[in-house]
Amino acid sequence: MGILTNIPISQLQIPLMTPITEKMSNMRKLDRKTTTQILRVSAHVLSLYALALLMLDYYRNDLGADPVREILLRTGEPALVLLILSLAITPLTILFGWKQLHPLRRIFGLYAFLYVALHLLTFIWLDYGLNLAYILDGILEQNFVLVGFAAFVLLLPLAVTSNKWSQRKLGKKWKTLHKLVYIIILLALIHFWWLVKNVYYMPFLYSAIVTILLLIRWQPVKQKALRFQRWYRSR
Ligand code: HEM
Fold it and tell me: For residue 40, which of 111, 124, 97 has the smallest C-alpha distance?
């Protein structure tokens, strides 16, 4: 009989981690941390790229014959792209299991809000000279502007509650509130479809991407996507 057989199993101290496995686990943690850091920095750079370019062209007086319209277009399109990027994170996690992407949802969402705020500011300040009566007319009398404005109003509470404190305070309500993003993206797409004339391929492209992203979140498709993820990760 060995000496260990007399010791109750609960009192046995089996080392769960040898120094080597501990070192490997620490390295993996460090790797994950570095990847997340690199992804965060890249998301900030990517999000600020359009704004930096716009500012550069503004200082070089290179915004064309209608600078106000140019600023509207060059804040509106990045806003839409960033909204879509923020919406793309969960489907990408479902498909490939890339959990490191999760923090980018908030980054892209907040930058989308920044661009929409600049977009609105351009409209009310540069285009309508901060004249409230004109602004109200401009919003209420053009359907595409009204829809865009509705998207902005809905985006406000999401931007305000995008911090950890609000998430903790609101609990389950936070998730429900942030489902507004589906209505926002729909309104943003309608805004875009409504304002373009003749050339519809960009709104079509964005609508197609959004449809795919939303489909991946839909339970029957999500189950298949998760099966794909298992296959992808076991390769
Ligand atoms: C989530 C909110 C919004 C998004 C994503 C958005 C997006 C866009 C996009 C993609 C464009 C067209 C850019 C292009 O043709 O390349 C645009 C143009 C425009 N948007 Fe918005 N927008 C939003 C909200 C607003 C708001 C709040 C206003 C004003 C109250 C507004 C007023 C305009 C105007 C006046 C144009 C230019 C139309 C033209 O002259 O062709 N948008 N927006």
Answer: 111
Which residue ranges have their beta carbon within 6 Å of ligand 1? Answer: 69, 72-73, 76-77, 79-80, 83, 116, 119-120, 123, 139, 145, 148-149, 151-152, 155, 184, 188, 191-192, 195
Any domain includes 10: no
Q: Is residue 78 situated within a structural domain?
A: yes
In a domain, 98, yes or no: yes
Residue 196 lies in a domain: yes
pTM of the model: 0.89
Indicate the SS3 state at residue 179: coil
* Interval between CA 191 and ligand 1 midpoint (Å): 7
**Full residue range of the structural domain in which residue 97 is found:** 19-234
Question: Tens-of-pLDDT digits for all 235 residues of the chain?
Answer: 444 445 555 455 555 567 777 776 676 666 888 999 999 999 999 999 999 999 999 999 999 999 999 999 999 999 999 999 999 999 999 999 999 999 999 999 999 999 999 999 999 999 999 999 999 999 999 999 999 999 999 999 999 999 999 999 999 999 999 999 999 999 999 999 999 988 899 999 999 999 999 999 999 999 999 999 999 999 8
Q: Residue 28's CB: how many other CB atoms inside 10 A?
A: 10
| Alpha-carbon span 111 to 78, nearest angstrom | 9
How many domains does the chain contain in total?
1
Query: Do residues 123 and 132 lie in contact, with contact meaning Cβ atoms separated by under 8 Å?
Result: no
